[in-house]
Specification:
With 94 residues, the chain is α+β, with helices and mostly antiparallel strands. Helix content is 26%, strand content 15%. The longest helix has 15 residues.
């Protein structure tokens, strides 16, 4: 069982207060968003962040896999730099 932080009370219109979490140095801000999951009769709150719709492509699984691969290539030194497009094209033609 996880650490018990205290109890909460459901108020009018389903509003709940998580003020107890601040006492435990859990950083919360007004307007924070949580996904609510139900698992084995337990309510689980998962902190979420919203991203603009025109940026969702970056967080797609396939794109993130490519980002990890690129980071690995950079870390391993499997990259080249060119000062101009002509040098790049000459290297591609090799």
């Amino acid at each position: 069982m996880g650490q018990v932080l205290g109890n909460i009370i459901v108020q009018k219109r389903g509003v709940v207060s998580l003020g107890l979490l601040k006492e435990h140095n859990i950083p919360l801000n007004d307007g924070d968003i949580f996904q609510v999951q139900l698992e084995d009769s337990k309510v689980i709150l998962i902190p979420m962040k919203l991203i603009p719709a025109d940026q969702t492509w970056f967080w797609a699984k396939e794109w993130q896999e490519g980002e990890k691969e690129a980071e690995g290539d950079i870390a391993a030194g499997r990259v080249k730099s060119f000062t101009n497009a002509e040098d790049l094209i000459m290297d591609l033609d090799k």
